[in-house]
Write a structure and sequence with these properties.
heterotetramer; A: alpha/beta; Rossmann fold; six-stranded parallel β-sheet; four-stranded parallel β-sheet; 18 helices; 15% strand; B: 500 residues; six-stranded mixed β-sheet; 22 helices; Nase/OxRdtase_comp1 (chains A, C); Nase_Mo-Fe_CF (chains A, C); ChlB/BchB/BchZ (chains A, C); Nitrogenase iron-molybdenum cofactor biosynthesis protein nifN (chains A, C); oxidoreductase activity (chains A, C)
Chain lengths: 461, 500, 461, 500
């Protein structure tokens, strides 16, 4: 079993993780007509907003309760109420998703009661707008947890409880945050090719897919899951949760409505996609269409063409737990080995299944220390400087990716996404190949560390 | 050269009215104070004269649920003032979010061995967990400082940048700083820049300035041989290399730049600042406090300058030279003459491509006024401008830069700004990353004027050539011809139009 | 108008062009059950085969008449006959595509008559197999010409002549050789989304798309246009030719059958795709489906996000004429400028429309000489060493691409392909960005040549 | 160490029968001569003994419409022998195809400034157009030579590699070469390697060897101080650095490598070759001609050696040492002892992962026999092997390498090879790029054994470690577990199986 090593130091040097409220905001952005509302200072919101904009290169309708010094001392309910009313008046959103921040959580107010009070007192004014609360202090968890909490909260608050008549062709999909916009588009198209209808929650493919809205001023998210879809999740035949962090929302949905769920810890790789396609076959009663079979065949071919470049390669990954699992199993499945695995939190059960000797809970400083001698670094854009210092190529994955275009349009799941990943990585390896020189030949050289001339790094391990 | 033009006051007044009509009464009343139309362009130097009839009311609280572009005190201290001091480690003290979000958001260039003796692009946080909130974080801070000393022994000092929870849980970071400073014999600066203080990043600037005064000045023996032409450049953060371009000019006219705050700065430069002969302020907003303090305590005069575009460069160089007397004045005239052909060449190349193009600005610091003339040097017109986090003295300083009828907006919301842009449809908008995508989706060219959009420098003569090229590239890119602005579409399905 | 400069020297140093028979073989490979047959020495065939294998990473059923010394002296008809009979007996192909090489063309035999004789004498044995001849000496033209000649020959030989009853939903598409497998797949899917049926000739997406055939030993191409489809081209409502070099086959088809054609000199870029979609709309009488509109919207967004990275960039391209036009117009449409344009032959009319001051007919040596100071090189894999010597990144385009995986799975046309191209190129620029240093700042430096420190190259111009 | 195992003769005979049954009678009869099963493994050194009962008949003509892996004379001369001579420019003389197709198809490594004094990875062609075919190309060749002299003045010489049309249009490239050699005072070598000559690349080797004899040897004054331990390494093309790995060993045992043909070679090395004391032939097939000539004319003995895998390395080193006497013999034993622990470590690591795995080979040159023992050193078994373009003496030389029952195939077609592989289903196939994709699609691991599949070197001890690692990576990659071989599929739609 994989050993999970706790943090080695008090400081985080080049943090791997961003924080929980951002994950929750992302999830709310996958609902149509939604506005995520940070309950905190304008500053936190502004920072998170900029980071989201830099990642998606899109308009992000993130809002703030603009807690100031006085409110911080006296309590934030007035600000929360004013923010909600202002948003309602001006933009009439379908959903306001409140994400708490460290500032208000430190005060330890009872937000749930605050919200109930607001909704009760302002029932008439707020009709037609769902208001969902996700408790997401920065000092706990990371994006994964924030995302899952927001989805759980939406199901708890919005989905109609109780057993309901099931629609035989409808399935509910709860994807992890690490699926790209292209993944979601592709997932939907795949499900539909079996004659099924997919309700995907959250669905970032509508709102953050890089389209230009026809109607100019859109103060909320556009596209995404509708509130009505969330209400009616209980009529699905089957729920499919993707990634371990979506187990909890799936369980809550099952508890509320009895809809059974199947969990895919990853949708990357041939085997997991086979399992997914097989499930769609059995739910729909249809065999896989020619298009899907052709994609499988193309993936097989990519496995053949690509494995050669992966064999024996050493990979260093820093990612949140489920993405770490997704990527690590992809790499080891191609014959590479995981030389370093760093993650954000030690609590996820998926970590035990990561195909590495050990997983270090830590930061990019840890990654930099552990990655010497690796052939590839895999982490978000902030890993670029470590990659440069180590002289190792970087494959960008996770959040944020702000220094490349189109990261949301890259497929990473199912047959086609796995194929594309293989090509991407194999091409990185091909681009950074080094030929031997007469001087480099030496039978007694340790071939396990291909290049000893790399500069030392500043982290100790 | 200030172009002689007048903007459309009536249109601008109407736009303000339309925007406000969408708010609930209470909010409208508050927002009204931030929006205005300039009455007349004043003459340079007439500081303090009213900018417009109603004037904008700035530096007041944000409204819940009305997101603007502003940041917080932490952003002002860590992100602006302290972050670029390169040989110090700046701890984002509290939960991970603030530090992670703000990481590498500004392009403060520097030279040095990153991770060895230089730390600007690294990010340090004490990564508070729930137990730190509950039991207090002072012990953790001590550990973090010790770890930093061990991992990065070549650091010259540490600053502790407080995030919101610090101010709420009653930690005594001053005590920890004092203790650890003594132990490690290093400068350690606690900064009380919790995000909830003040209404924007602006108070963070002030707090950071004060922390320099209280925790750096006069705290160590500074060995430094002062000279007659020593100046500090204050408030140039070396975005895209600006400070380097500035230094070239000042040295050419015979001055010695002994400190640059805080782009590419060392702690030593900050410590020896009080020995200079003159403080040259670039970003008045973020650094006027410490300059006023130095004036008061050490008798160092200060003056503002503007190195955007040849008109202002020449004016500023002459102003500066006057301060130092004939020798420097002569050199300055020689330098100006030397660069004239370059300026003429740049203008000859770009003015025909940019003449008459209209620009709206919305930025922070001093840029809403300082860059105006650079555009005008290229024959362009400023039709609107505004500050993210200005105070009233900023707007007073803006008066002589803007022409009659220019639309002025303070701490504008995304909604308001878009409405103004849609109404005016300028040829270029210069603002920040948050505005970039909505503006471009309107079919309007855009440049980031905080970070120079990955380009720069824009200061000095070198910068002017780059500035002119960048504006040309943005405005004259052929994609704008392809772009059917959505409001120009017929009601027909979009394909019908697209397919012609 | 663009100036077309003739070759400057007698030698080709690092040739840009490969040769005609290879282009013809490629075209034949796009027909189902086909075998291209090089009429020449086993050596030429072997070389071309290896190059095709390295590019596609697929099995390539290329065959040879194995001309030896005796046959070279006495004439090759016997070898041609024996080869055809052997292929027929062993593999029973639907089509044998004979491509002549320099060896046999130098002898100047009358292959058309040879073939007629063989077909007549062996009529019974050869029944059920079409045999098409493309005259493609290496000493003339390049891939473009070879491809077009093979397609023309197929239409002339196979398509039923005369006006025929038109199928209202059927269109014929004659794509240029420079479209990738992914482009062809995407083209078909786009056409079908309007309720139309596309017959694409040649169709490499069936045979060279990286699938693993179920039935093991496939001695011919599999997938691709059927011979029947080629016979029935005359029943299409409309023919669409893509690239100037497909004008001739389209004209021949029109001459034979009366099917009108529309020529798209490029399908890359918003405007050309708009025109294409508009044509599909008018042929089908259907409006563009939501999926297409969404793709257009995503491309618009990519134009916005991407143009910034292209503005003022200097691009050096070496490619065959139509691909040069396709890429050059793409780059200038994004605000870049073409600093150097090199092509294989000077005869194509499209060259006059290339948005560059001049187009040099020449080799990669010419490219290397002209490209100093450029921000990007664009050519096939053999440009990699020039790129390295010049210190300029290389974007691989054309044939051969042997040192990267998945080049056939990259889209380069229509809304989505243009979007992907924008991302690819913008990311190359982002990866090779250089920050100023105090030393690099100098107002009197010539900013038009961003880096003067590049090493001198060996080509003179 | 030759493993003691026997392959399945009956199965292999049956496979040959099945394959031949698909051909028309005439073709079957001709193909039958190329296919065989080994009767018994001979002892090393018993050169000349029959390999099998029926024996293979090799170096005979290819059949039209039956594509094999063979190349042509041009490939043998330009691609193999001359191409790697690094300080000469090799002109592919004729139309562009041959030169372009063959460009960078072999990984002949070298050191030098490419494009300045070294030209291996550049490609030069006279790019014939129709008019050159009609009016003859001699004038063009003259111009091309002049241009090369001007563009690449540091070249040491030029070779003219004839493509097919040259032999047909009656050009006199010898006259042009003589004229231009005189004019430029350079070595210029015309090579009549038109592709239609001979049945494979093999005749091209011979022609290239002869051109060295006729146009290089004894043509210039060679200043060179010969030593008692001078050897030429002949027929090592330095694929992936092989020649470098070889040189390390030879120098360690006390020899001086004065020439290496032709990987990383200079023209000077070729010129001085006749002064060496011994020719060590690696690739016998391509270079035996010139070695026999040197033996005859200059009295230089030659011997073959094999540096693949420790068994052969040791045997070869000892054979070589015997030639030079006790001093070298002692040094050799010391070298062998020095590397023993490394060999043991490599075997200890990889043998458990490779033991008993079966291998089929199909390659060119000497590899179908020479690499066999390297596999056996790792506990693997060779079940089939064959040459692309062998002569009978190659098969004679193969006898003592193969065990009884091994399938032998000469100049095999893609169809035949696939049928054999499908019938035998070995754990690994080692062949060329053309075979790579069909074999992999059958679900069988593959390595390119011409080019070492972008890896190498495989010669010497260093190479053995890399070889062992590469075979392990190929065979034990997890993708093979994912791959359902199509013939194992049930009749059900593939998804049903796939989804399990």
């Amino acid at each position: 079993m994989t050993r999970i090593l706790p943090q080695t130091k008090s400081a985080a040097v080049n943090p791997l993780k961003s924080s929980q409220p951002l994950g929750a905001a992302l999830a709310f952005l996958g609902v149509s007509g939604a506005i995520p509302l940070f309950h905190g200072n304008q500053g936190c919101t502004s920072f998170a907003l900029v980071l989201l904009v830099r990642h998606f290169k899109e308009v992000i309708p993130l809002q703030t309760t603009a807690m100031d010094e006085v409110a911080t001392i006296l309590g934030g309910m007035d600000h929360l109420e004013e923010a909600i009313l202002n948003l309602k008046t001006r933009t009439n959103p379908k959903l306001i998703g409140v994400c708490t921040t460290a500032l208000v959580e430190t005060r330890g107010e009872d937000f749930a009661r605050d919200l109930s009070n607001i909704k009760m007192l302002r029932a008439r004014e707020l009709a037609g707008t769902e208001i969902v609360l996700a408790n997401t202090p920065d000092f706990d968890g990371a994006i994964e947890e924030g995302w899952a909490r927001a989805v759980t909260a939406m199901i708890q608050r919005i989905t109609l409880p109780g057993e309901q008549a099931r629609q035989s062709k409808k399935i509910a999909i709860l994807p992890g945050w690490n699926l790209t916009v292209a993944d979601i588009e592709h997932l939907r198209e795949t499900v539909e090719s079996f004659g099924l209808k997919a309700v995907i929650l959250p669905d970032l493919s509508g709102s953050l897919d890089g389209t230009v809205p026809d109607d100019r001023w859109v103060p909320t998210s556009y596209g995404g899951t509708t509130v009505k879809d969330i209400q009616e999740l209980g009529t699905a035949m089957q729920c499919i949760a993707i990634c371990e962090h979506m187990r909890r929302p799936a369980e809550v949905l099952q508890g509320l409505t009895g809809v059974p769920y199947a969990l895919f810890q990853s949708l990357t790789g041939l085997k997991d996609t086979d399992r997914f396609v097989s499930l769609l076959s059995s739910v729909s009663g249809a065999t896989a269409p020619a298009r899907i079979r052709r994609r499988r065949s193309q993936l097989q071919d990519a496995l053949l063409d690509g494995h050669f470049h992966f064999g024996g390669k050493k990979i260093a990954i820093a990612a949140e737990p489920d993405q770490l699992y997704q990527l690590a199993t992809f790499f080891t499945g191609m014959g590479a080995e995981i030389a370093a695995a760093v993650t954000t939190t030690g609590t996820s059960k998926i970590l035990e299944k990561v195909p590495a000797e050990q997983v270090q809970v830590g930061d990019l400083g840890d990654l930099e220390g552990l990655a010497a001698g690796a052939d590839l670094l895999v982490t978000h854009s902030h890993g670029r400087q470590a990659a440069e210092r180590l002289g190792i190529p970087l494959m960008r994955a996770g959040f944020p990716i702000f220094d490349r275009l189109g990261s949301q349009h890259r497929l990473t799941t199912l047959y086609r996404g796995t194929r594309d990943l293989i090509f991407d990585v194999a091409n990185i390896f091909q681009a950074s190949q080094h030929a031997p020189t007469p001087q480099s030949l030496d039978p007694f050289r340790n071939r396990e560390v291909p290049d000893d001339s790399r500069p030392p790094t500043f982290s100790r391990h | 050269m200030s172009l002689d033009y007048e903007n459309d006051s009536a249109l601008h007044e109407k736009l303000i009215g339309e925007v406000l009509s969408q708010y609930p009464d209470k909010s409208a009343k508050r927002r009204k104070k931030h929006l205005s139309v300039a009455t007349s362009g004043d003459q340079p130097g007439q500081e303090g004269k009213a900018l417009s009839e109603c004037d904008v009311k700035s530096n007041i609280k944000s409204i819940p649920g009305v997101m603007t572009i502003r940041g917080c005190a932490y952003a002002g201290s860590k992100g602006v003032v302290w972050g670029p001091v390169k040989d110090m480690v700046h701890i984002s003290h509290g939960p991970v979010g603030c530090g992670h979000y703000s990481w590498s958001q500004r392009r403060n260039y520097y030279v040095g061995l990153t991770g060895i003796d230089t730390f600007v692009t690294l990010q340090f946080t004490s990564d508070f967990q729930e137990k730190d909130i509950v039991f207090g974080g002072d012990k953790k801070l001590e550990k973090v400082i010790d770890e930093i000393e061990e991992l990065f022994p070549l650091n010259k000092g540490i600053s502790v940048q407080s995030e919101c929870p610090i101010g709420l849980i009653g930690d005594d970071i001053e005590a920890v700083s004092r203790k650890k400073a003594k132990e490690h014999e290093k400068t350690i600066v606690p900064v009380r820049c919790e995000g909830f203080r003040g209404v924007s990043q602006s108070l963070g600037h002030h707090i950071a300035n004060d922390s320099i005064r209280d925790w750096v000045f006069d705290k160590t023996e500074v060995e430094f041989e002062a000279g007659p032409y020593d100046v500090n450049v204050v408030g140039d953060y070396n975005i895209g290399g600006d400070a380097w371009a500035t230094r070239i000019l000042l040295e050419e006219v015979g001055l010695r730049v002994v400190g640059n705050w805080s782009g590419d700065a060392t702690l030593a430069e900050v410590e020896r600042a009080p020995k200079a002969k003159l403080n040259l302020i670039h970003c008045y907003r973020s650094m006027n406090y410490i300059c006023r303090h130095m004036e008061e305590k050490y008798g160092i005069p200060w003056m503002e300058y503007n190195f955007f575009g040849p008109s202002q460069i020449e004016a500023s160089l002459r102003e500066i030279a006057k301060h130092f007397g004939p020798e420097i004045v002569d050199k300055t005239e020689a330098v100006i003459a030397k660069y004239r052909p370059l300026v003429d060449a740049v203008i000859a190349k770009y003015q025909p491509r940019l003449e008459g193009k209209t620009v709206m600005l919305y930025v922070g610091g001093l840029r809403p006024r300082h860059v105006i003339t650079a555009y005008e040097d290229l024959g362009m017109r400023i039709v609107g401008t505004g500050y993210e986090f200005a105070h009233n003295d900023d707007y007073q300083r803006t008066g002589h830069y803007v022409n009659k009828g220019t639309l002025i907006y303070d701490d504008v919301t995304g909604y308001e700004l878009e409405k103004f842009i849609e109404g005016i449809r300028p040829d270029l908008v210069g603002s920040g990353i948050k505005e970039k995508y909505p503006v471009q989706k309107m079919g309007i060219p855009f440049r980031q004027m905080h970070s120079w959009d990955y380009s720069g420098p824009y200061h000095g003569y070198d910068g002017f050539a780059i500035f002119a090229r960048d504006m040309d590239l943005a405005i004259n890119n052929p994609v704008w011809d392809l772009y059917d602005a959505p409001w120009k579409k017929k009601v027909a399905p979009p394909m019908a139009v697209a397919a012609e």
